[in-house]
Structures are given as structure tokens and as C-alpha cells.
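Researcher: Here's my situation. A collaborator sent me these components and asked whether they could plausibly form a single complex. I don't have experimental data yet, so a predicted model of the whole assembly would be a useful starting point for our discussion.
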Amino acid sequence: MSRIRYGASNIWLEIVMIAAVVAFIFPVYVMVTMAFKSSAEVAESAIALPQSLNLENFTNAWAEGELGRALANSVVVTSLSIVLLVLIGSAAAFTIVRGGRRIHGVLLMLFLLGMMIPLQLGMVPLYTLMRDLGLLQTYTSLIVFHVGSLLPITIFLYTGFLRAQSPTYEEAARVDGASQWQVYSRIAFPLLRPVTGTVIIINAINIWNDFLTPLLYLGGSDKRTLTVAIYAFRGEYATNWGMTFAGIVMAILPVLIVYFLLQKYIIKGFASGLKG
Amino acid sequence: MPALVAYGVVVVYPSLSGAYYAFTDWNGGPYPSFIGGANFAELVQDERALASLRNTLVLSVAVVIGQSLLGLVLALALNTAIRSRNLLRTLFFAPMLLPPIAIGVLWQFMYSRGGPIDTVLSGIGLDALVQNWLGDSSVALWSVIVTVVWQHVGLSMVIFLAGLQGVPEELYEAASLNGAGRWRRFWSITRPMIGQATTIVLALTMIGGLKLFDQVFVMTSGGPGYATETLSLLMYREVFVLGHYGYGTAIALVLTMIVAMIAFVQISATRRGEVEA
């Protein structure tokens, strides 16, 4: 079988696939090399290697784009949203799966429906609500948005995992007199660790990369996130591609480093999470 | 339950009131009045809205086809003994994790006049293929489609790979012994066995395509003319640029209906396919 033997046809396939991936990552090559080029070099050729490892674009982008600030904002919003999603989502899933009453099934349906509804439908009322509550330009508005909008996928992942798990340990603890809260926090939550990893990965990518909501809620303030900062580069320095790409490279570097360190878990998380 | 509160405030209440405001003349003021289906009557007369509906559908269908076929081919190629398969998988998946807005900026440059794509094409003697990729209204939508497929093909690949790895090796061995060729093995074993993976890939891709915003927003803002205008983009413009809140939510409601319809049709159709196979 092809999966076991490594024959001549595999060598050909290997060569073809490597050629394909080289073509595939060509845009990434362009992005990275551009980040090191001066404007004169950019004008000369769009694809040549830079003549030297010139870091000027990076220092300029960092200072002018206020990327340090934007990076801190993205970290704050993403980490707080994730902590809340994990705590609220797992507790809700625990109640739904182990509750067993009819109302719990209805609640689950209600949450899962949320995965289907495009956020565009509620975008305007939610925006005016945030505005009327005076929450625009605060972290709170964005965190509340992310927690609410990503709860459906979070609850979906947790309930799927909990269903497959037998409640033996929980029942044993209950027999020994543990309260519902103790059962959840001491027994159920620690056992959810594998799926919590998936929840963190999928949600973190979503929140970190989100653009439209931070643009609407935090745009124009000093709380803008990295994605909004990237977009601002296109408006403010429209002709300075070198600096724009230096900004982008710095903005995506944290994600790429984490990805290459944890790629097996991340890919598995996406595949298993979305397979349901 | 705090989950209910958060979900209610962010999704349930806004969606329901959004669905109501779609039938009003709301312009951001405090007292919108109910105007029945007037927004929708306006919508079917609005050339821009019709163009954006058409573009959204073309884009979604093209992305579904491109991304699923390429994703399947990549998954089949990487589900073999080739030595670089893990590295290749990592690289093909990588764009998935990058912010769509950054991808949009990157491809805007890729497509720019005299940019990387033009340079490569002239370099290998294909000057004839050099285009105004984002500025020509007959090409721009396809340029956007290529970008979207490039970013998300890794996800389809990974889901198909997970499906392929669930196919028992013995089935192929038995089929080979009985003289089934490569194509026959794919059609009679692989295809039905990865039915579930296919459902997921098709549904995710289609819904993702329908809601697409970031990349188009930064690459073309819907231009030239209405050539790449999508429903999400049009809604954004009507609401946050022109202040037509009621009309904007009517567009969002149309989008919601299409998403719901396609999700329903697709899931039930592929389910039936799985059972028959």
C-alpha cells in the first residue's frame, strides 16, 4: 500500500508537492523580504531579495503605528475573553449535559442556533446598545462581544466532549457529599483539559484576528488592536509598502511562533473541534 | 447562568431586534417607525444590492468548489508515505491562522501593477497574462476568490486528512486484491468514507464565503464599480457610512436567510448522500 512503501511514485509526488508548497508560500516570502527593503529597493523590484538586513522599517513601523500599545491591547482583550469563555462555557456545558431536564436540551439548541446566525444581523442593535451604555472605546465592550458571540462554539465543543465522558467520578464525589460546585470545579473541569486546549486555540485565533468589531468599537482610540493598527497602515502610509509589511510581520510573529511550536496540537484542535 | 446573560445580550437580543429593525425606517434616531416590507421592495430595485447579492453567491460557490477540490487533492497527496508530509501540512495550513486583514493587505500588494505576480509572469515569458488584477471589473472578483481560497485551503485539507485517516487500510487491501484500480478505490471506498468530512468542509466554506468581509474591505472596498461588492460590505456601508440602519439590517436579514437556507439544504443533502453510499 502506498502508505507503507516508499517507491518511485512517492519520489515524484514528493517533488511535485514541494514545488507546490514553494509556490504556495511565495506571498509569505514577498511579505518578509519587503519588510527589509527601502522604498528605492521596492521600486526596483517587487520580488528581489533585499540588499541588506535593514531594520529601519521595523523601528519606524513600531513607533509610528504605536504597535507596542496595540499589541498590549490585543493581549488584554484576547486573554480576558478566553478566561471568561473557558469558565462560563465549561460551567454552562456541565449544567446542560449533566442537568438532564428538558429545559437543558432547549437551552443547548438555543446556543447552537447561535453558530448559524450571522453576526451581521445583530451588529447594528448591538452597536447602538454599546454606544448607549457608554461602553464604546472600552475593553469591556469588545470582551463582552467576544464572550457572547463565541459561547456557542465553546459550549458546542464542551458538550460534545462531556457527553462522551462517563459521569462515574462525578457520581462518586456526590455520594461522598460534594456540592454541585465542588463536583464541577474539582472533578469535571480538570477532566475537560484536552477539550479546553481546543477551545483556547480556536477562540484565541478568532479573537486575535478579528477586525471589524474592534474597528467599530475601539477605532480611533488608544485601545485599538493589532488588526486595526495594520489596517491603519494602509490608510496612513499608503505608498510605504516596506513599513506596512514590517508592521504586519511584527503583528503576526507571535501567532506564527506559537503555531510552529504547537503546530501538532493546533492542527489537531481545528480538525477535531470542527469535526464535532 | 452567566452564559445565558452574555449570549442573550450579545446574540439573542441584537439578532431579534435586528430582524425587527429590518422592517423599519430607522436612521439612528430614537423612534424608528414600522414600514413593512418597504426596505425589501427597495432592495430588489437597488442595482448595487442586486450586484452584491450576485457577487456574494458567485464568490461563495467558487470558493467552495476551489477550496474543497484543492483541499481534497492536498489531503490525498499528504496521506501517503512522502517524507515531508508533516512539514508540508504545517505550511499549507499556516495562512489559516493569519488575520484576514493582513492577508488582504498582502494580496493587494501581490496584485498591484508591476507587483510580484506581474513580475513573475513577465519573468517566465507570460506577459500576455499580466492584468489589472484588482482594477478590472471582470477580473477583480476572481482575484479575491483566489486570495480567499489561498488562505483557507489548509483548513479543508486538514479536515479531509482527518477523514482519510479514519478509513481502514484493510478496505483498500481487500479492494486491490479484487482488482480495483486506483480510481475505483477512491470512488468506491474513499469517497463514501469521507462523507462526514465533506459535509463539514462544504458547510464551513460556504458560510465563510457568504459572510466574507475583511479581505474584500481592504483589497477593493467593493470596487471597481460594484464588481466585488458583497452583502456584508454593502451592509457595513449602508449602516456605518450612510446611517441607513433599517435598510442595512434588511440586507443583513437577507444574508441570514441565505445562510440558514444553505446550511439546511447542504446538511440534509449530504446526510442523505452518506446514507445511500
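Model: Some features of this prediction you could bring to your collaborator: The first helix of chain A runs from residue 8 to 24. Chain A has a mean pLDDT of 85.
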